[in-house]
Amino acid sequence: MTRAVPEQKRTWRTGTAPGIFPLLGHGIALYRRPLAFLNSLPAHGDLVEIRLGPLRAWMVCHPELTHEVLMDPHTFDKGGPLYDRLGNLMGDGLVTCRQPAHRTKRGLLQPGFRPSHVAHYTDLVTEEAESVCDAWPTGQTVPVTETMMTLTTRVISRVLLSDSLDDTTTAEVRDCLTAVVRGLFVRTVVPIDALFRLPTPANRRYRYALSRLHAIIDAVIAERRRGADRDDVLGTLLAAARGDGAAAPITDQEVHDHLITLLLTGVEAPALCLADAFSLLARHPEAERRLHAELDTVLPGGRRPGPDDLPHLVFTRCVISETLRHSSPGWLFTRVATKETELAGCRLPAGATVLYSPYLLHHDPSSFPDPERFDPGRWLPGKPTAEQRRALIPFSAGNRKCLGDEFAMVEATLALATLAGRRRLRHLPGYVAGVPRPAITLGPRSLVMACEARSRATAAPRASDSRTAGDHGVDNT
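Below the sequence we write its predicted structure tokens.
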């Protein structure tokens, strides 16, 4: 007779981060040296208490604990300083709503972002990327971050609103979003409202940008209501507001909140991912050569990629996956405990703020050896372990995982393939990769690079390989 050996319960380490400033807590460290501060926390425990201003909060520093939080949204719901601030912008949209309302809101928006529907957006993405590429003058410098922001603003606005935004309004939306995400970060790490009521230039810029975004969305909704129905996300929302369907009608405010939520989440992060990808490729010529070889084979003559090409852009998607691991734009998030609970053996009171960081998990050497090395080959079919896939959470996990995760991967893959197939970006002389300027998202805010035309190798005929199709590092959902 054999006896099952009882599974040993893991012993978690808990601690408190040193260096607490009066009133400001660890906000100064998070603002001035965010990545260094995050990297210092695992030495103090798997769950580390920090201060956001005077507010006590707990940072999760281990992948297993992070998944425990993310897979239990009824105990660890959306909330905390980040989502409190985002609520001023997004209202009660899909990202900020509490768990009881989430399923209904997600069900309304899900059809437009299912993988089967995402294929319909390929021409839209490549058209916009081709337009960007045509505007890049070879032999001159190009503002990469600004251009990627324009690209992703054009793409997501066409998905949401068809052609409702002209070029001037698109540029204004891009600039307003940039101002807002910067202002949101400092309000998150130092959540002291009195500081942000002062009439400083930064506070005025933030309030103006917030006001303009709301006004632009309201104007688009009003214009659409005067015109014909369109087959886009706004059309779906307006039909729901009219009660066209089995579900109860949604309010005009919900239409507004959903649009501005999807606009914010669909612009900044994918733009910074693309800017980071070009920066990293320029610093890693072997990865760049492998990318170019694949593009020359899959897209001979620099032709525009289509939906049938996606399964063959294996290394291209690996570049995006590794960029999201190495330099994830979404780097710090908060949750709030809905009741008194235990995490890592530590009793947390109801209302406790819990933080997790994709950046911290993606740079954990126990999950990713040599984590500072940019290596797209980590994500080639058959290479990543189950633990590595689990530790890679650029789009979160659980039922609050990003609605547009697959759309974002397709958009970034197609945009990179279109642009890198025709142009090569080089860093300017004297370039040094510095610490990114912190905001709600993380990435190069003002990257400028030199643009060169690409000479293409003669490609061999493409062979289809069913072993690689659909396996591109970041799991499809």
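Confidence is low (pLDDT under 50) at residues 463-473.
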